[in-house]
Amino acid sequence: MEKTIDEKKQGQTLVLDQKKENTRKLFIESYGCAMNFSDSEIVASILSDQGFNTTQSLEDADLVLVNTCSIRDKAEQTVRKRLEKYNAVKRINPKMKVGVLGCMAERLKTKFLEEEKIVDLVVGPDAYKDLPNLLAEVDEGRDAINVILSKEETYGDISPVRLNSNGVTAFVSITRGCDNMCTFCVVPFTRGRERSRNPQSIIEEVNDLWSKGYKEITLLGQNVDSYLWYGGGLKKDFVKASDMQKATAVNFSNLLELCAQAQPKMRIRFSTSNPQDLTLDVIETMAKYDNICKHIHLPVQSGSNRILKEMNRLHTREEYFELIDNIRRILPECSISQDLIAGFPTETEQDHQDTLSLMDYVKYNFGYMFTYSERPGTMAERKMDDDVPEAIKKRRLAEIVQLQREHSEIRTKEYLNTTVEVLIERESKKSDAHWSGRTSQNIVAVFPKEHYTIGDLVKVTVKDCTSATLIGKAIKYSDNN
Ligand code: SAH
Ligand code: F3S
């Protein structure tokens, strides 16, 4: 899954290596973006030192944790439904404790304990290291909460336990928080100010993953292009840094290069890019290294300049096109994907047409599309009426989704009768005789297994395709294998 919500992964429970001496059982499930899934690996790692082994059976659990998402109302409703389910299990097993982690914990704070009587523990995204203390409180029969946001916490010193892993691909988080304040978005409120992780600890994690057999990593952040390390501290405080700190600072392009050089055969991905921060040097670094995957997830949200301004997105439609043109010029083989929102307050039919025409210009390979969901506390909620009727939002979204489907089909057809490089990740969901993996461009490819195995990089000739999947035959191992 890239940064964005992967519907197939929602609610996945996580299992980690079992420690013999551990006697308590943890059931942990995650909702929302890749960062949450990655955070759950940090939480499981912290709790593994506190006597917890994970279980996939809710009924067996001593502790149930749900890592939550607040991005749209629907995401929150899904979690509320899960709490009802936990409640039913708690009636059978009254000793079971329930904790809420992540963005809903941060957004609702103590309200959670008041509204949802079954919740014993509320922990925000920067407070996971406090879990041992909080659990001690809970063990003594008290509710426990820590939702303090941090200026420094990056969990750089915690070695995440890879959970439910295919052993081939892993997330490596590089920044936390977001300073952008897009007016529709709750993330700056739930995940705090932007801070970057020490590049040395990132490289160590990449090296460690390679030594354990991993073949692909995704560098994760709300806005990876904004990565900036100058010895620690908030991104916004960089202006106050010393000359020495400024001269030795590491930006995202530098970090990408460091990762690509550290493990020349490790595939490197990153997510998410923000048009306002994606600089030419990042695109040039991508071109320079074969092992940096040629895919950019570049959310645009709207094609209308007026709406972009209302959203506080700091680029225009024209600047976005210029960026797309630069990507196409420097990296002709690069795929591009989007996030789009239909029905932001005041959006007119003309604004919507501007979104469709922007899509026509770019012809994205794929995208994640949503209707606007008003989030409490955001600027849009405070200053604007959610005035586009639900039916119109839905109709506009359907038109956007339909157009994207057509573009995806055009894009996948471009690969017909070509040979692509695929990293095998798992068995195809539709057939146990086929492998499934992704190309550098992040397009799924399936092909007969033959003598190949999970973790192999193979050359695949594309014979057929659907709008989202390439269907082919492996012809040999890739030289990069
Ligand atoms: N910069 C972040 C964005 C996280 S939110 C990242 O990509 O990592 C992911 C996507 O959810 C956004 O790009 C946006 O398209 C969508 N989104 C965010 N807030 C929303 C809201 N209030 N209503 C509908 N969609 C929203
Ligand atoms: Fe949200 Fe905009 Fe940041 S979408 S996560 S405020 S870049």
Automatic annotation (TrEMBL):
Could you give the cofactor binding note from the entry?
Answer: Binds 2 [4Fe-4S] clusters. One cluster is coordinated with 3 cysteines and an exchangeable S-adenosyl-L-methionine.
In this protein, which residues make up the domain named Radical SAM core? 164-411
Domain named MTTase N-terminal is located at 24-140
Which sites bind [4Fe-4S] cluster 1? C33, C69, C103
Please provide an example of a Pfam family that matches this protein in its UniProt record.
Answer: UPF0004
- Give start and end of each TRAM domain: 413-476
Q: Which InterPro entries match?
A: Elp3/MiaA/NifB-like_rSAM, Methylthiotransferase, Methylthiotransferase_CS, Methylthiotransferase_N, Methylthiotransferase_N_sf, MiaB_methiolase, rSAM, rSAM_horseshoe
Which residues bind [4Fe-4S] cluster 2 per the record? C178, C182, C185
Q: Which UniProt keywords apply?
A: 4Fe-4S, Cytoplasm, Iron, Iron-sulfur, Metal-binding, S-adenosyl-L-methionine, Transferase, tRNA processing
Q: What EC number(s) does the entry state?
A: 2.8.4.3
GO CC annotation: cytosol
Catalysed reaction(s) here are: N(6)-dimethylallyladenosine(37) in tRNA + (sulfur carrier)-SH + AH2 + 2 S-adenosyl-L-methionine = 2-methylsulfanyl-N(6)-dimethylallyladenosine(37) in tRNA + (sulfur carrier)-H + 5'-deoxyadenosine + L-methionine + A + S-adenosyl-L-homocysteine + 2 H(+)
Q: Which NCBIfam families match?
A: miaB-methiolase (TIGR01574), MiaB/RimO family radical SAM methylthiotransferase (TIGR00089)
Query: What binding partners and quaternary form does the record give?
Result: Monomer.
Protein name in the entry: tRNA-2-methylthio-N(6)-dimethylallyladenosine synthase
